[in-house]
């Protein structure tokens, strides 16, 4: 890209389109790799032979490839003894998650664990994917399996450059999706999986998703080529693999079911001004189910939604709230419980993969949503766009400065993947 005479948007797009037509999905802009989603399986691009070809080769010598980025990152870590990060950014459906998996595959290839290890870290991280996807992925208008959270996978290495552990950190789970979905989209996969699970669904008094408010705001219930009942079994298997015991698995799905029942609780105005009561018998049933599944007192659960506590220096004042505030309380509870469940799952996955607290250095792969702009944008879009802006500023500062010196290019904003000092990324994430 840097060899273009005029580096402007039409030139960049034309170059990408021409290369794409020649089946060249990767293009460099200096040290940054642009990947165009092929939406087709290209096994020859990622096989063992290809990995062998890129191993240890000077960056830029071979055709642009995601393996070249991973290799340069690995070599920089070994030779400079400094942790690295690879940032994978782009809009929804661009191919970030697939790219992350390819990077991990390559890193395991060059830095595979010592002989004797039964399961590689890549295997372990990949095996935990169905679980993360069941609880953190959903159908959007752009992608049937869109990750609704950011992910930072840290691959840890010992002093001989061998993988010694890994950890997955997640950011910005889209909590609002639990209680609100747009037309043609779905809530998180786990809800539909549980509804389709047969005996387990009966146990928790669940039925078709159209019966639950948190699922029926959009009329999209099924995904093409996906059987939710089978996916449920896969999620259960993934839980077995990461060592979540049967009773914890039961607790997880009790919480998922409780959230669906919570969503069906409606309120009517109470007798007193600005107060609310539960609407009818049907809602009472869902309230009782939610309380039973969460193992909490039913009256206490109701009062957490219909009342609020104001803390004053003189003590707490308990005040009734109107029915619309009670709905907000209900939704907040559902979102918080779900987000905590997700964090708990991530913790368990990390325990199962095993971290090396004494690792010499690490390569972090950040897979994070790109800029978003919808008809209605919420606080989440602000956070996502802010995070992207900060990351881009960082790259513009560190990477483009270097390139400008080298190639005299102008600053452009683009989706990129690249490697930088790992500590910078960690500091940045903390700030964001
Ligand atoms: N390198 C690739 N080769 C073949 N297919 C790909 C590749 N990258 C992406 N795809 C296809 O594109 C789809 C979407 O990719 P992916 O889920 O990685 O996007 P994403 O950027 O992570 O999206 P989101 O932000 O919504 O999670 C994949 O399911 C896959 O079919």
UniProtKB/TrEMBL annotation:
| Keyword vocabulary terms for this entry | Actin-binding, ATP-binding, Motor protein, Myosin, Nucleotide-binding
User: Which parts of the sequence belong to the Myosin motor domain?
Assistant: 1-432
GO process terms (BP)? actin filament-based movement
Gene3D superfamilies annotated for this entry?
Answer: 1.10.10.820, 1.20.58.530, Kinesin motor domain (3.40.850.10), Myosin VI head, motor domain, U50 subdomain (1.20.120.720)
Matches recorded under InterPro entries = Kinesin_motor_dom_sf, Myosin_head_motor_dom-like, P-loop_NTPase
What is the protein name stated in its UniProt record?
A: Myosin motor domain-containing protein
Molecular function per GO: actin binding; ATP binding; cytoskeletal motor activity
Q: What is the lineage of its organism?
A: Eukaryota, Viridiplantae, Streptophyta, Embryophyta, Tracheophyta
* One of the Pfam families matching this protein, by short name: Myosin_head
What Gene Ontology cellular component terms go with this record?
myosin complex
SUPFAM superfamilies documented for this protein: P-loop containing nucleoside triphosphate hydrolases
Query: Per the similarity annotation, which family is this?
Result: Belongs to the TRAFAC class myosin-kinesin ATPase superfamily. Myosin family.
- Which residues are noted in the entry as ATP-binding? 90-97
